[in-house]
Design brief:
Elements (H helix, E strand, L loop, with lengths): L1 H18 L46 E2 L2 E2 L8 H16 L7 E2 L2 E5 L2 E3 L1 H10 L4 E2 L9 E2 L5 E2 L5 E2 H4 L3 H7 L5 E3 L13 H8 L2 H5 L5 H16 L3 H11 L1
Parallel strand pairs: 5-10
Antiparallel strand pairs: 1-2, 3-4, 6-9, 7-8
Helix pairs in contact: 3-5, 6-9
The site of one 2-acetamido-2-deoxy-beta-D-glucopyranose has 5 residues, from loops.
Length: 244
């Protein structure tokens, strides 16, 4: 009897470990998510993080000049508003315990088609409108030197000349990593509201069919409204805890 219980316990543990408790396989990722109470940035993920707290030190001083060997300031320091969005993306990729759900099967350090909210991309585009960039894609357009540092191949131009709009920006800056969702609820915007969206996005039923059903869309909207009503931070924290 005891043996059976132990066996069952390990079977359950194994299933949940391989399903959820993994991280992407990039150079800074932990093998599996765990709490990081001392994070300097990316605190959205501190209860279950795929990055070590020390990684986020690099993001804690504005302007952020570089993250590991990748320089952010090749076209001058980013404005605070634009930098904040870059950080949100960096934090998601490096630290989110949910990024694994969108792992690129061909390249396990990368994500594929993570659904972003339209308003998130539009706000991001607006936030960077006074900033410049020399690349359309961070994945393919840099020139890398022998130290593994990135350099511009083309001249710096304003964001709004490089990208037509927020959608164009979100869907080209990181290759195929992100797409803009048709839904305004079942999408990520890199804040506490993601807890609601993720609950539906990674549910069994959405894994079976590639498109999310309209009943899930409605359920998501109701849930988001209810969460918004519970104004205290605590309400949101319970949501976050529930999905982990
Ligand atoms: C990134 O930099 C950290 C130190 O800041 C280092 O420990 C880590 O190995 C680096 N990772 C990669 C992929 O270069
Ligand atoms: C960051 O912390 C982790 C775990 O505490 C450690 O293994 C790693 O060496 C640290 N990296 C740096 C650059 O301090
Ligand atoms: C960019 O920021 C760094 C660090 O704060 C600062 O030393 C430098 O002067 C800034 N560069 C420009 C062009 O403002
Ligand atoms: C993975 O590679 C296959 C074969 O080259 C390709 O058909 C598929 O689209 C790729 N998937 C992703 C997510 O890049
Ligand atoms: C862009 O620059 C203009 C004019 O200097 C300023 O009014 C505006 O607030 C800036 N926008 C952002 C997002 O930084
Ligand atoms: C955004 O730009 C793309 C590419 O130019 C274009 O196809 C699309 O219609 C634009 N979307 C909006 C909402 O303006």
């Amino acid at each position: 009897m005891f043996k059976f219980t132990v066996g069952l316990f390990f079977a359950v543990l194994a299933t949940s470990t391989c399903r959820k408790d993994r991280c992407l396989e990039g150079g800074t990722h932990k093998p599996r998510p765990s709490p990081e109470p001392d994070m300097h940035e990316c605190t959205l993920y501190s209860k279950s993080s795929c990055c070590y707290a020390n990684f986020t030190e690099q993001l804690a001083h504005s302007p952020v000049t570089h993250v590991n060997n990748t320089y952010w300031n090749r076209c001058g320091n980013l404005s605070k508003s634009c930098e904040d969005y870059m950080k949100k993306i960096e934090c998601f990729y490096r630290c989110s315990p949910h990024a694994i759900h969108w792992i690129n099967p061909n390249y396990t350090a990368a994500i594929d088609l993570v659904p972003l909210c339209q308003n998130f991309c539009d706000d991001w585009y607006e936030a960077c409108k006074n900033d410049s960039t020399c690349i359309r894609s961070w994945m393919t357009d840099w020139e890398w030197d022998e130290n593994g540092e990135n350099h511009c191949k083309s001249e710096c131009i304003p964001y709004n000349q490089m990208y037509a709009n927020g959608t164009d920006m979100c869907e080209s800056m990181w290759g195929n990593s992100f797409k803009v969702s048709d839904s305004s609820c079942l999408c990520l915007q890199m804040n506490e509201k993601d807890a609601v969206a993720i609950k539906y996005l990674i549910s069994e039923s959405s894994e079976e069919s590639s498109s999310v059903s309209s009943s899930e869309e409605r359920a998501c909207r109701r849930k988001l409204q209810r969460t918004a009503l519970q104004k205290e931070e605590e309400g949101v924290e319970i949501e976050v805890f529930e999905i982990l």
